[in-house]
Amino acid sequence: MKQITIIWGLLMVLTFSTAFVSESDVNYAAILILGIAVLKFALVSFEFMELKKAHLLWKYLVLGFLALFSALVLFIL
Amino acid sequence: METVPVDSKNVFYPPGGILMWIIIFLELFTFGMALVAMVYYGSLERELFHESRLLLNASFGAVNTVFLLTSGFFMARSVMELKQDHVDKSIRYLWITMFLGLCFLILKGIEYNSKIDAGLDMNYNLFFTFYWALTFFHVVHVLVGIIILAITTYNLKKNAAKVELIDVEAGAAFWHMCDLIWLLLFPIIYLIF
């Protein structure tokens, strides 16, 4: 119970970081924003959805989807 | 509550069930491909997409992210409590999850209303075609998610002994999927261009 509360806190920090990055003139803001989104996606799937307890195949499929999606977006951007 | 022992490490039994995970991947690929298409067309018309993106209220999107992530947190807690046979607590967390889902829909409704008032409908330009199609499709999923959670809550209240944990986990997985889709939609639609 304590662990997912910490994860929720981390997700909130990451959400506010996204808002900060998008409002600032940071170089490579798009890459940072996408990176934070990928991290949040991984935290929700592995912790909230308990993917960490699942078979390796499901973990690789989720991570593979994330890698493919981010690579395509970054390549096109 | 019926808790059939399930080995999550077995490839055929991911948390929430294999059928739900097949649905989750189909949904993720559908939204993912549409978002990649949006980024592609955005790269062809950078100025149009940038100016259109500035017409959106990113604060609405950020608050909605907080609503969905927090609802996901309470959903996860609800499942955890149910596994320990704390049915009342599990139901309480389910109510909070649904309430936050409703908050998401209300804020989305306010956002949609302001866009319609400003004449920024689906035919305004290509950016808004993507905006309406993707966000509305996601809203439909959130609505379906709330209905699934409402049915789960009703069943738990009526006779918790007859409810199977795998069914509650499947509903929870669907709800988290709405969260995952939003985590991809929000940065691409509201921030990146």
What does this structure look like?
The complex is a heterodimer of chains A (77) and B (193). Chain A has 77 residues and is mostly helical. Chain A has three helices and no strands. The mean pLDDT of chain A is 91. Helices cover 80% and strands 0% of the residues of chain B. Chain B has helices at residues 18-44, 46-53, 58-83, 87-117, 126-159, 165-192. The A-B interface holds A 1, 4-5, 7-8, 11-12, 15, 18-19, 22, 30, 33-34, 36-37, 40-41, 44-45, 47-51, 53-55, 57-58, 61, 65, 68-69, 72-73, 76-77 and B 8-11, 14-16, 21, 25, 28-29, 32, 35-36, 39-40, 43, 58, 62, 65-66, 69-70, 72-73, 75-77, 80, 172-173, 176, 179-180, 183-184, 186-188, 191-192.
Biggest beta-sheet profile of chain B: none
The number of strands of chain B is 0
Per CATH, the superfamily of chain B is Cytochrome c oxidase, subunit III, four-helix bundle
What is the string of helix and strand elements of chain B?
Answer: HHHHHH
Helix/strand order of chain A: HHH
Summarize the structure.
Chain A is mainly alpha-helical and 77 residues long. Chain A has helices spanning 2-23, 29-48, 56-76.
Topology:
The complex is a heterodimer of chains A (77) and B (193).
Chain A: H1 2-23, H2 29-48, H3 56-76
Chain B: H1 18-44, H2 46-53, H3 58-83, H4 87-117, H5 126-159, H6 165-192
Helix pairs in contact in B: 1-2, 1-5, 1-6, 3-4, 3-6, 4-5, 5-6
Key traits:
heterodimer, A: mainly alpha, 3 helices, 82% helix, flat, B: 193 residues, mainly alpha, Four Helix Bundle (Hemerythrin (Met), subunit A), 6 helices
